[in-house]
Amino acid sequence: MAGPMNSRREGPQPETETMAEREVSQVETPSSRLVIAIVGPTCSGKTKIGIEFAKLIQGEIISADARQIYRLIDIGTAKPSREELTEVPHHLVDILPLEDDMSAGAFSELARKITGEIFARDHVPVVVGGSGLYLRAITDGLFDAPEIDEAIRRKLRSRLESEGADALLEDLKQIDPKAARGLLPQNYKRILRALEVYYSSGEKISELREARRSVPDFETLQFGIMLDRKRLYRRIEKRVDEMIEAGLLDEVREILRKGFNPGLNSLQAVGYKEAIGFIRGKIKYEDMLSLIKMNTRRYAKRQMTWFRRDSRIVWVAADEKSPREVAEEILDLSFSKRTRTVQK
Question: Which 3 state secondary structure label does DSSP give 337?
């Protein structure tokens, strides 16, 4: 049976008709194994645009957000509302306990499994999110990592606590300069990972990434949501104020009341770390508010830096447009880009 982006309408088409104005079953593409990714910085409107786009093409949304994957942290991560979650099927939202971690490899495995299930239903996977590493794990695949010796892992973590990340980074520079390039001590998780791989297998992680990549069995078209910087920053300011009004502090207090460790990786997300600092009396309310806004702007800047490095992303200006209008533009671009690719 042909999928929703793999069928054809017979007869002449009016020249003024856009792809978004056609019925879903009238969109013609040469392959049914096509994933659409909608990416961009926080507060760019990805959630609403993704939902509108999924409605147009019988899509199901796979969230690529490193924080929305956790339970209990709802307000500060700007999860889709209950109403939005019922508009189209969503995956990988609210699935992980706060105390657990989700590596890019584990995420890739889950996301690919779900992608296959969506294809089996003749629907279109629509990946929506701003976590660059998660998105890369879906679109490009990850290298097949060797098994890590738990004794080595414990020893390295002990060294991290006793000697600090600087010492481990110096080790990595000697062992695998390519993997260490550009890393800072605060990137201790990546430093640990590279050292774990080397001491467990004797192989450099930089070489493994090049030689043992697990390639996806589908094609991905990526679209980035672009906003004027001033407009984006105004949205960030407004969202932070709305999160506070919606009860972010009460949400954090309840998490702490349940006994969760404030040092959990999940609680280092922007908004939660600052709120915990205020609740524990370490910073003033005004400082908390300013820090959340500043750190959110910095996070958005890092996201854009990541995405701009990927020349495959087609950027769509979203200023002065409704989510539906942006979704329709992405649908038109999806068809034209797919057609050009096949014609080459």
Answer: helix
Q: Which residue has the tokens 């939202």?
A: 93
DSSP 224-282: EEE--HHHHHHHHHHHHHHHHHHTHHHHHHHHHHTT--TT-GGGGSTTHHHHHHHHTTS
Say yes or no to pLDDT of 337 above 80.
Answer: no
Neighbour order of strands in the sheet with 34-39: 90-91, 59-63, 124-129, 34-39, 219-226, 314-317
CATH label of the domain that carries residue 289:
1.10.287.890
Closest-CA residue to 217 (of 331, 140, 136)? 140
**Hunting for tokens 């980035």 — which residue is that?**
224
Q: Which of 112, 144, 133 is nearest to 35 (CA)?
A: 112
* The two three-digit tokens of residue 15, written as one number: 């020249």
Q: What is the DSSP string of 19-81?
A: GGGS-GGG---S-S-EEEEEE--TTSSHHHHHHHHHHHTTEEEEE--TTTTBSS--TTTTPPP
What CATH number does the domain containing 180 carry? 1.10.20.140
Q: How far apart are CA 329 and CA 335, in angstroms?
A: 10
279-293 pLDDT, tens digit per residue, is 999 999 999 999 999
Taking the C-alpha atoms of residue 269 and residue 76, their distance in angstroms, rounded to an integer, is: 8
Check whether residue 85 and residue 224 sit in a common domain. yes
Q: Is 45 a member of any domain?
A: yes
What does pTM read for this prediction? 0.77
pLDDT digits (tens, 9 = 90+) for 6-29: 433 333 333 334 444 343 433 333
275: containing domain: 231-300
Task: Let me know if residue 333 belongs to a domain.
Answer: yes
Token readout for 33 is 């194994």
Max distance between CA atoms of the chain, in angstroms, equals: 73
Listed in sequence order, the residues at least 6 apart from 257 whose beta carbon sits closer than 8 Å to its beta carbon are: none
Query: How far is the CA of 66 from the CAs of 5, 88, 139, 280, in angstroms?
Result: 29, 20, 16, 25
The pLDDT tens digits of the residues spanning 199-232 come to 988 888 887 776 556 678 899 999 999 999 999 9
